[in-house]
């Protein structure tokens, strides 16, 4: 988020066709809940386009990019690598240490699709479970980002939006931004 060290979401293991919707939702969730960028590994250009379109319409800043491989990104990351996995340490036990690390520098948040290669567990500074039950990368990412930012992401301002949703008790209102 603006004024803080960068938070980047790295989505591994995208399977074209099967994972299109899930990978798109990873990008949209990263954007909506305070991350600065999403990196989508593999043939995920359809998801990239959708996330870019939403950012154009509803504002940013947020960047999304398709990349060929994850290995160098994780290995060369000049900050903290957090891998979300049901096998990891409990988020409630490590969130404070991760926030302290984020105060010092950028955080890379890695989420998988199918089986994640073991080297990712090795490279990660933190392997983190959002519960130790199997569920979804979108759910894990949402809870993790909210814990990382302690709710600040809900108050963020959006820049250069074409449209703005006006919150209301009932009904839908979307206004063009001047
Ligand atoms: C459908 S799961 C695949 C799980 C797979 N068995 C594995 O090797 O991790 C896809 C992704 O969701 C995320 N995920 C699922 N459950 C999670 C949990 N309880 N805590 C954190 N992340 C989770 C992980 O990032 C995982 O790579």
Automatic annotation (TrEMBL):
SUPFAM superfamilies documented for this protein: alpha/beta knot
Molecular function as annotated in GO: tRNA (cytidine(56)-2'-O)-methyltransferase activity
Protein keywords: Cytoplasm, Methyltransferase, S-adenosyl-L-methionine, Transferase, tRNA processing
Pfam families: Trm56
Chief place where the protein resides: cytoplasm
Enzyme class: transferase
Subcellular location: Cytoplasm
A single GO BP: tRNA nucleoside ribose methylation
Residues that hold S-adenosyl-L-methionine according to the record: 84, 112-116
Catalyzed chemical reaction(s): cytidine(56) in tRNA + S-adenosyl-L-methionine = 2'-O-methylcytidine(56) in tRNA + S-adenosyl-L-homocysteine + H(+)
UniProt keyword annotation of Cytoplasm present: yes
Gene Ontology cellular component annotations, sorted alphabetically: cytoplasm
Enzyme Commission identifier(s): 2.1.1.206
Function, in words: Specifically catalyzes the AdoMet-dependent 2'-O-ribose methylation of cytidine at position 56 in tRNAs.
Quaternary structure annotation from Swiss-Prot or TrEMBL: Homodimer.
NCBIfam families tied to this protein: PRK03958.1
Family the UniProt entry places it in: Belongs to the aTrm56 family.
Protein name as annotated: tRNA (cytidine(56)-2'-O)-methyltransferase
Source organism of this protein record: Haloprofundus marisrubri
